[in-house]
Amino acid sequence: MENILILGSTGSIGQNAIEIIKKGSKYNIIGIAFNKNISKAIEQIKLLKPKYVYVAKADYIEQLKQLFPTIKYFTQDALVDLIAKSDVDFVINAFVGSAGILPSYYAIYYKKKFALANKESLVVAGKILTDLAKKNNIEIIPIDSEHSAIYQCLDGKRQYLNKIILTASGGPFRQTDKEQFANITKEMALHHPKWNMGAKITIDSATMMNKGFEVIEAGWLFDLESHQIEVVVHKECVMHSAVEFIDGSIIAQMALPDMKLPIAYALYKPHRIEFKNKLSFVDIGSLTFEKPDLEKFELLALAQEAFRKKDKNLGLLLNAADEVCVEHFLENKIKFTDIPKIIKQIIVDFEDNLSNNIFELQAQTQMIKTQTIKLIEKTRGF
Ligand SMILES: NC(=O)c1ccc[n+]([C@@H]2O[C@H](COP(=O)([O-])OP(=O)(O)OC[C@H]3O[C@@H](n4cnc5c(N)ncnc54)[C@H](OP(=O)(O)O)[C@@H]3O)[C@@H](O)[C@H]2O)c1
Q1: Which is it for the CA torsion 182, 183, 184, 185, positive or negative?
Q2: Measured CA distances, 242 to 146, 170, 229, 238 (Å)
Q3: How far apart are CA 382 and CA 362, in angstroms?
Q4: Sign of CA dihedral 221, 225, 230, 231
Q5: Domain 1-deoxy-D-xylulose 5-phosphate reductoisomerase N-terminal spans what residues (predicted)?
């Protein structure tokens, strides 16, 4: 049995991972980590009886100690001590946001088996993390469905790769005229046509920032140049991505959209576990592919540009400004159309002199977030 630590256990990916792990006998969940969803965490502690619990909001520890006194608790900066524990064999990073970046670094630094869902890690610290992974001979196993698809298709054939074809659902506004974008409400944006995910990633799918992040993630993860990453809108969401080899052959990974599949693959590869619902080509009838509309979805274009200039680490700006914008949009403080306007302005203002030191990224992210809030306050209603 391998001891697994689930960072983000109370979230959408974390809960799915627990469900899959509980069905098998390969893993013992030795630790869980979350932010503030105390009721879900209590439920999980009762079910899993973990040895370790990390709570980002320290105030909750006393309450948990009363209920579960034998657990060893961690908070704030002590996450590194938890990841470093010698009885932690495998780390799943399913934290949302920039809180996930340093934990990825520590998991690789301490040479743990490592599966990554947290997008921000590679978007903000792609070079640092992939360099360290190479040095420490650690494989970063992707959980994101597109990256898992590419990973499954490559399967030992990386040297023949010509390009990857990253599929995108197009989100809920694929067919909405750009003129209508100013009227998009949070309720409309939270309704993804195919995937059921956490709020942040759902809004990012609606703006296609999410696909932009995935371009950057894929670039680092599979060591690609920007011209080797093609984004294709595929509204049926059954082809989760594909790879094209030098002889023109294309191999795609296809299945019904269900995040449990890439999570299970990350946990059990090269083995596969049984899923009841299967994809039927006949039921689907036809598959469609189209170019993304980069004028409508400016954030995708911006992320592609950011990866072209990857030495500048613009992913840090995109990620920090987007996190603030999505939060404000969810609180009805800015309009849907303000999100790209604000992020573009932040890039113009802070494009130069970004850090590539892992321990400075957090502070820089915080600085950019503060500047984004200031910009929002200054330009409210533009
Ligand atoms: N959901 C998907 O289908 C999907 C697909 C591909 C990639 N991803 C990526 O996977 C990551 C997780 O996504 P999700 O949808 O599972 O998110 P989610 O449902 O919002 O869950 C996020 C998890 O992170 C915890 N968390 C939030 N802020 C934290 C902090 N400051 N410190 C420590 N823990 C914190 C949350 O704890 P509380 O519950 O206590 O707040 C929760 O356990 C994201 O980076 C996302 O982009 C998700």
Answers
A1: positive
A2: 8, 17, 10, 11
A3: 29
A4: positive
A5: 4-126
Ligand-binding annotation for 179, yes or no, is: no
Domains and CATH numbers, the chain: 2-142 (3.40.50.720), 145-308 (no CATH), 313-382 (1.10.1740.10)
Kindly give the interhelix angle for 315-330 and 119-136, rounded to the nearest 10 degrees. 150
Q: Is 187 helix (H, G, I), strand (E, B) or coil?
A: helix
* 111 touches 90 (CB < 8 A): no
Q: Residue 337 has what DSSP assignment?
A: T
381 to each of 82, 185, 334, 378, how far by Cα in Å? 44, 15, 7, 9
234 is in an annotated binding site: no
Here the tokens at position 374 are 């200031």
Q: Which of 42, 48, 54, 53 is nearest to 19 (CA)?
A: 48
Please say whether the dihedral angle defined by the alpha carbons of residues 253, 254, 259 and 264, taken in this order, is positive or negative: negative
Residue whose CB lies within 8 A of the most ligand 1 atoms, among 6, 7, 9, 12, for a mutation test: 12
* pLDDT tens digits, one per residue of 188-212: 999 877 777 788 989 999 999 999 9
- Tell me the pLDDT tens digit for each residue of 327-359: 999 999 999 999 999 999 999 999 887 877 898
SS3 38: helix
